[in-house]
Design brief:
365 residues, alpha/beta, Rossmann fold, Dihydrodipicolinate Reductase, domain 2, 2 domains, 9-stranded mixed beta sheet, 6-stranded parallel beta sheet, 15 strands, 24% strand
């Protein structure tokens, strides 16, 4: 039995400065490496963490010592946490397989949900989550780090403005040396390299970024077909899943090449957008280059060093709170949106099929 008195003492001491309208946030799972974003988040008045669900007590105690939350906040089940602290929203930080169960527990109670990318472990799970979100009228967002990159927003604007002309090709590269090589926690590594809990290896973990960005760039237009090839270059580290993939998305007048990998020597999340008149290089979160063609191989180049996006678009939890309060309405096919991420899951599902059958997979229009 949890000490509710102790919990609310913590709430008063640590969260007393929060505004009355602060979103009460529950955290479902602690095994995802991105959970530090909420546990280490600076004190703001938009979101207050009120409860955590984690069955691994050793993991919870380790993070409790690292981040200063009391173990009285930690519950064994979502239902127990929801009943005790009545959150307005829940953020999922367990395995990707757990996302469906979170929505199943929260949606009927009107509790909004945000999960880490990708939306779901499979298209089947995604369809069930989508149906629940719509039936119970909740927000269901998917958090991608690249969603708040000011360079991605600038690149999108340049394309929309016609600066580089009509779109022809996009190349998106995401990844790092591999989860074991970069030293992720044992709990994170355990589900990342499990085909059931993660849906695949690098093709899911990093392929989702490119699929998500392309769905945004194409404003919901689906590729006609998806062709994917996977490899396992580190069988000693990733024995059950792929760790390198190439995914080709074919549209009517454009093509995208996604290169998700756990074999990049240097971690990266970059993109190149080619139009008929020029190209935009998104080198990283802050650096962007625009080249306009001149003659055969010449060009004029403009370089940009961009500042962080303004609130609430510089923080996933601030944006989540703003959307819940209806202060922010996401634009069509925004990377956070459910409509985008349902198509993203269709693309990933097709990529998995293609890699398995060694044939291109067509998407239903």
């Amino acid at each position: 039995m949890k000490s509710i008195a102790s919990f609310f003492l913590y709430f008063i001491l640590f969260c007393g400065t929060a505004q009355e309208q602060a979103i009460r946030l529950g955290v479902a799972g602690l095994s995802h490496g991105h959970v530090g974003w909420i546990l280490g988040r600076e004190n703001k008045e938009d979101v207050v963490m009120v409860g955590i669900v984690e069955t691994d007590r050793n993991l919870a105690e380790r993070l409790s010592k690292a981040h200063g939350f009391p173990m009285e906040m930690v519950f064994n089940t979502l239902d127990e946490m929801i009943a005790a602290v009545k959150p307005d929203a829940v953020a999922g930080f367990g395995s990707i397989y757990d996302h469906l169960a979170i929505v199943e527990a929260c949606a009927p109670k009107g509790i909004h949900v945000m999960v880490e990318k990708p939306l779901a472990v499979s298209l089947d799970h995604a369809k069930k989550m989508n149906a629940l979100a719509k039936k119970h009228n909740i927000h269901l967002l998917t958090n991608y780090e690249t969603s708040w990159y000011p360079t991605n927003v600038k690149a999108f604007e340049l394309l929309q403005q016609g600066t580089i002309g009509e779109l022809r090709k996009v190349i998106v590269r995401d990844g790092h040396k591999g989860p074991k090589k970069i030293g992720v926690s044992k709990e994170f590594l355990s589900f990342l390299t499990d085909p059931k809990l993660n849906g695949g290896g690098a093709i899911m973990d990093f392929g989702c970024y490119g699929a998500n960005l392309m769905t945004w760039i194409q404003q919901g237009k689906k590729p006609n077909k998806v062709t994917a090839v996977t490899q396992q270059l580190q069988p000693e580290n990733n024995p059950k899943v792929d760790d390198d993939a190439t995914i080709i998305l074919s549209y009517d007048t454009a093509m995208a090449i996604l290169e998700p990998s756990w074999n990049w020597p240097i971690g990266r999340k970059d993109m190149e957008i080619y139009g008929v008149k020029g190209v935009v290089y998104v080198d990283n979160q802050h650096d962007l280059r625009l080249r306009i063609a001149k003659g055969y191989s010449g060009y004029e180049e403009e370089q940009f060093r961009l500042e962080e996006r303004p609130e609430p678009f510089n923080d996933p939890f601030s944006l989540f709170a703003s959307v819940i309060r209806e202060e922010t309405v996401l634009p069509p096919y925004d990377p956070y949106s459910l409509e985008n991420n349902m198509i993203t899951m269709e693309i990933l599902d097709a990529a998995l099929q293609s890699a398995k059958t060694q044939r291109s997979a067509e998407l239903k229009k």
